Amino acid sequence: MALSRLDSLYMAVVADHSKSPHHHGVLEGVEAIQLNNPTCGDVIALTVKFDGDVIEDIAFAGEGCTISTASSSMMTDAVIGKTKAEALDMAELFSQMVQGQTDDRQKDLGDAAFMAGVSKFPQRIKCATLAWNALRKSIERS
Fold first, then answer.
1. Where is the NIF system FeS cluster assembly NifU N-terminal domain (predicted)?
2. pTM (2 decimals)?
3. Second-level CATH architecture of 2-141
């Protein structure tokens, strides 16, 4: 019964972020990092505004599946106010998590921790990590 409730919660959180994504749009005056997942056609354009070493604001635009959109929304919520190093650590933690590795720090990912179930569907890992990979590129270019 508990697994059933957890599955229902997962579905509700993912659906909410997909239907009403947070930080959806484009930040003016910031170069966008655009990535795509040729496997399923997901495309993301990520804009990140830094205040020194800190992520001050972030937004994403593009077309994606439910998993890609929800993961993008969750990622934007999780990294605002974080330093570049903290955000990179979170991106690595997220990547490991969706590949089935567990870590007590996953709770630090906020709602993105709900994406752990993606590990059961290897073909969806690229969908889930697309925004996080765009974040990495954005930090590398800053």
1. 10-127
2. 0.93
3. Alpha-Beta Complex (3.90)
